Amino acid sequence: MKTYLSVVECAIEHNDTFLVIKRPQSAASAGGLLAFPGGKIDEEDEANHTDILRSAVKREVFEEVGLLLTDPIQYISSSYFMGNLNVPAIDTIFYCKLVSTNPKVIPSPREVDAYYWLTPSEINQSSLAPPWLKTYMNLVQSYKTSIELK
Residue 150: which residues within 8 A CB-CB, separation 6 or more? Predict the structure, then answer.
């Protein structure tokens, strides 16, 4: 039986821009590249028996950028990748549009080299945005379009 590492990320929108972080060069994964805030599922997330993934994404966002998400968090997609040391991983992407959440970012110096509020176009044009981040951004845009059409 295969065991997977479970990772969560959140595309956080405020004023038509999205919060992206630059991972430290020394990061175990994607060092020096842009990413949505997020990280691994931890044991403490198990306490929320009915919604572990959202619990994890809230915790990771708070740990990395100091935002206490109070707005709805929507599931976007999940994908498989081969992580460091050939560990198979599942990455789950969420989306949160800030309405009531305080947008003041307090980056963790250990986990975040820099942060930016970028438009989808700026993310897609950035040389520091890996292909998977661009794919996730496009999936978020498709999701937003689908709910606007309803």
Answer: none
Higher-pLDDT residue of 129 and 4 is 129
When divided into structural domains, the chain yields a total of 1
What CATH number should be reported for the domain holding residue 72? Answer: 3.90.79.10
- What pLDDT score does 50 carry? 82
Over its C-alpha atoms, the chain yields an Rg (Å, rounded) of: 15
What pTM was computed for the model?
A: 0.93
Q: Structural domain of residue 103, as residue ranges?
A: 5-148
